[in-house]
Design goal:
about 230 residues; alpha+beta; Diaminopimelate Epimerase, Chain A, domain 1; 2 domains; 14-stranded mixed beta sheet; two-stranded antiparallel sheet; 5 helices
Length: about 230
């Protein structure tokens, strides 16, 4: 089988949780879209990245069922792994930087796929939500501490065609493509653009996502990344 790395992105302060990511560093070994799609489905991660140029940072992102022009946690994880100042995706050039234990990317909200951002009155309400039936992609959130920008969030994909089968472990794992996404950079990006302020998001069972709005409509998204193998 083609060699690939496995990362966890948006990990909690203790290094746990986060969203798993597969990265094929030598995309030339599997150049065709069909074979990449088949390989991503075989791995079963929510996303798999194929690196087409490790020096320029050209990447190609796949879920188990489709190709994505941009995705948050794949860009954060791949930028950390390759240690590059930018990545080139079909959506556009993604800026990247490392700051201590956090890996950051800079992207545009319009690159993210649509999400329903649904606010609840309390974090306890978000904690008590059941996984909804098939339907819209819902990012449920509530303020934990509005003055400090702290948010409690959970992501419910609600569609098999966007997530496929996830191998992520823990309470946030998807099951058969329907369930809960443990850490969602694109949704955090959209929420930051809507609220217009820096956020510290606790998502899923214990993942952490940091964000900050930037000039001219850009948004930074950051988190901890760990290499599993």
């Amino acid at each position: 089988m083609t060699d690939y790395d496995v990362l966890r992105v948006f990990c909690g302060p203790s290094g746990g949780y986060g969203n798993e990511l597969g990265v094929v560093r030598d995309g030339s070994l599997m150049p065709g879209r069909d074979e990449r799609q088949t390989f991503a489905a075989k791995l079963g991660f929510s996303e798999t990245v194929f690196v087409d140029d490790p020096e320029r940072g050209i990447i190609d992102i796949y879920t188990p069922t489709l190709r994505l022009p941009f995705a948050g946690h794949p860009c954060v994880g791949t930028a950390w792994l390759l240690d590059l100042p930018e990545l080139v995706t079909p959506a556009g050039v993604v800026g990247a930087r490392q700051d201590g234990e956090f890996s950051w990317i800079e992207a545009r909200p319009e690159w993210a796929p649509p999400r329903t951002l649904r606010q609840y009155a309390t974090a306890a309400e978000v904690d008590g939500l059941a996984v909804p039936p098939l339907g819209e992609w819902v990012y449920a959130w509530a303020w934990e501490d509005e003055s400090a920008g702290r948010i409690r969030a959970r992501g419910f994909p609600g569609r098999m065609d966007e997530r496929g089968v996830s191998r992520s472990s823990g309470a946030g794992a998807c099951t058969g493509g329907i369930g809960e996404d443990e850490a969602t950079g694109a949704a955090a990006l959209l929420l930051t653009a809507r609220l217009g302020r820096a956020l510290n998001i606790r998502q899923g069972a214990g993942s952490q996502i940091l964000t900050a709005p930037q000039p001219e409509g850009w948004v930074e998204v950051g988190g901890r990344v760990f290499l599993e193998r």
